[in-house]
Write a structure and sequence with these properties.
7-stranded mixed sheet; 7-stranded parallel sheet; about 30% helix
Length: about 650
């Protein structure tokens, strides 16, 4: 099979998958379906159009096919000639035809001639006929002086009915009431980027400076004034999706005082059924990936971070390292070679977590499903498995992050439309600043050694059974092994005792209520030990300190997070990384590191749990003796 024939076969397959009826010119019946793709259509003076696309019985566009490997922007001139070369007398939607594709069956580019200054763009597959038909409604009406479908009809859209890009050119002024200056600038800059037809844009705003509110504000404007049909708001944790939905529900339009959810349907996707009437769909990126693959995603996997879940996909869901990481559980005492690995929640689903397959076209979720994709915490969602989700849809990509990396800038084409860091936010009173309180122990600094002849307690990872064994040789360990391979309960206890003893004299002098404290542990077993020792050393009950990790049972993690956010109890929450990023808990006044953090970006995200401002009355409702939150404290027990 020649490369050209192979390319045509792939193009035929993609067209049929998108709902087009494919036929040869001699056998063509342009009324056989809503969309008909006619192969090798003769154009006198121009040769043959590889495919002529008919929508509702009229010619609407062309496809120029090339063998795999051919670069496509150089083919645009050829396909442009074909859009103008249709013989007179044939039914058409305009002259030139509005739409043109260039494709190798592997790579496809598309130009929408109805846009102002039409520019080709890469698309994952072909649009369905229904989408082209919808765009064709933007053509001038017969009342404009020329009949639709007549030769010579210009495909330029009129003002009353225009494409998304055309309507962007005439957006009404932004109502700035209720917006911070940084939010106003971000919205202005983003809309300017979109009017220039820039496909990707990055918004960097400090944690707690109102990224989500900014996003909802510009999403509302893009739907109401630019005609965006549907927006996908991607998060990487289920609890962040729930939090985002609440913000949509609370948003009041400055243009008519309706709540967002009173004016438009907002769907929080918790199953694989997409509400086609919803204007905004809030979804985890892992669920959208599974939907595109045609697989169900168990709800509990929406709470596993995408870094960890991605490694499980990549390793078929069975590697020990990935499983340990996703579960957040390692040895709670000295390790031994006979220990079996801990089972991850994700490893219960081997069919879902086979080695990663590339996303293929899914006709149930066509590429035109969304006009805009907003991806929150985008520094985590642009790699490997997950980038496929973002690049599947024919949509503008808008990234939100507080901590972009070089890779983040690269993915968004260096189009940073807003830069607003923590220092700027503190200066504007949008964030609170922080103090650092350092707790040092000898073991944390240097590690230690258990001499031969001593008995040590061994705990198995999977069963947590304990047994005592006598050491035949000296056992030395360094700080990196602490609380992973080795647990020194006295070291944890000393840190907690120091925090307890210094809390009301040095850290928050004059207080009686323990400030809302978020402790970051190394893994689930470490968190378990911390919770037990915190309760003992503070002399409090179960409600005083709670563990909030993937392993928590009896209550959903999102419910525990909500209690920590809005109720006086618990005072101390211990987590691994479930609350590390994105989760909004404004009353937190202490961020306590009992685990090392190698990534600067991840540290900034974890630190960000304490920076949010809160009204004094709201703070006092959960911490009665707090006057106001003018700073928070980082307690550093590991030297972060």
């Amino acid at each position: 099979m020649s490369p050209e024939v192979k390319a045509r076969e792939n193009i035929d397959r993609l067209l049929r998958a998108a709902g087009w009826q494919v036929c040869d010119a001699l056998d063509a019946n342009i009324h056989a379906a809503r969309g008909v793709a006619v192969r090798e259509f003769p154009l006198p003076g121009f040769g043959f159009a590889d495919y002529l696309l008919y929508v509702d019985g009229k010619a609407a566009g062309v496809i120029e096919a090339k063998r795999e490997g051919v670069t496509l922007t150089g083919v645009e001139t050829q396909s442009d000639k074909y859009t103008r070369g249709l013989p007179s007398g044939l039914p058409r939607w305009g002259n030139p035809l509005p739409f043109s594709y260039q494709s190798t069956g592997v790579e496809t580019r598309f130009t929408n001639g109805l846009d102002p200054q039409p520019r080709s763009r890469s698309v994952f597959a072909f649009h369905q006929p229904e989408q082209l038909a919808e765009w064709l409604t933007f053509l001038p009406s017969p009342a404009s002086g020329r009949g639709v479908g007549e030769e010579g009809t210009s495909p330029v859209a009129n003002e009353a009915s225009a494409t998304f890009l055309a309507r962007l050119q005439a957006m009404p002024a932004l109502k700035e009431e209720g917006l911070w200056p940084a939010q106003i600038q971000a919205i202005h800059n983003l809309e300017h980027s979109l009017t220039e037809n820039r496909p990707r844009a990055l918004i960097q705003m400090a944690t707690g400076s109102g990224k989500t509110f900014t996003a909802i504000s510009f999403i509302y404007r893009l739907i109401k004034f630019a005609g965006a049909r549907r927006v996908l708001f991607l998060v990487d944790r289920g609890n962040l999706g729930d939090q985002t939905l609440k913000e949509f529900q609370q948003y009041a339009s400055p243009y008519n005082n309706f709540k967002f959810t009173e004016e438009y349907i907002v769907q929080r996707l918790s199953s694989n059924t997409l509400d086609t009437t919803a204007r905004v769909c809030i979804c985890t990126i892992q669920r959208m990936y599974s939907m595109l693959k045609g697989k169900e995603l168990p709800e509990e996997l929406e709470e596993v971070s995408i870094d960890e879940l991605g490694s499980l996909f990549a390793n078929g869901g069975h590697s020990r390292g990935a499983a340990d990481k996703a579960r957040g559980e390692r040895a709670a005492a000295l390790t031994c070679e006979s220990m079996s690995s801990a089972a991850s929640p994700a490893t219960q689903y081997p069919g879902l977590l086979r080695s990663p397959e590339p996303i293929e076209y899914n006709p149930a979720i066509p590429i035109e499903t969304f006009d805009i994709i907003v991806t929150d915490e985008c520094h985590r969602s642009i790699y490997n498995l997950w980038a496929q989700v973002l690049e599947y849809f024919d949509a503008y990509l808008i990234g939100l992050t507080a901590t972009p990396s070089k890779q983040t800038f690269g993915f968004f084409n260096q189009n940073l439309v807003m830069e607003y860091n923590h220092e700027m936010a503190v200066a504007d009173g949008v964030n609170v600043n922080y103090d650092v309180y350092r707790i040092r122990t000898a073991i944390t600094e240097r590690g230690s050694k258990v001499e031969a002849g001593y008995s040590v307690q061994i705990q198995e990872r999977d069963t947590r059974k304990k047994r005592w064994e006598q050491l035949d040789d000296d056992f030395a360990y360094d700080p990196s092994q602490l609380d992973r391979d080795v647990v020194a309960p006295d070291q944890i206890r000393k840190i907690i005792q120091t925090y307890r003893d210094k809390l009301f004299s040095e850290i928050f002098p004059g207080r009686e209520w323990v400030p809302k404290t978020l402790i970051f542990a190394k893994d689930d077993a470490h968190a378990e030990n911390i919770v037990e020792i915190v309760r003992e050393e503070f002399g409090k009950g179960n409600d005083f300190a709670q563990k909030i990790t993937y392993r928590t049972t009896g209550a959903k993690p999102k419910d525990l997070i909500n209690e920590f956010r809005t109720s006086p109890m618990p005072r101390i929450a211990v987590t691994v990384d479930m609350i590390a990023t994105g989760t909004d808990i404004k009353a937190v006044e202490v961020v306590f590191f009992m685990r090392a953090v190698k990534s600067r970006a991840f540290f900034e995200q974890m630190k960000g749990r304490g920076v949010r401002v809160i009204k004094p009355d709201d703070l006092q409702s959960v911490t009665p003796d707090a006057r106001a939150k003018d700073h928070f404290v980082i307690v550093d027990a590991v030297g972060v």
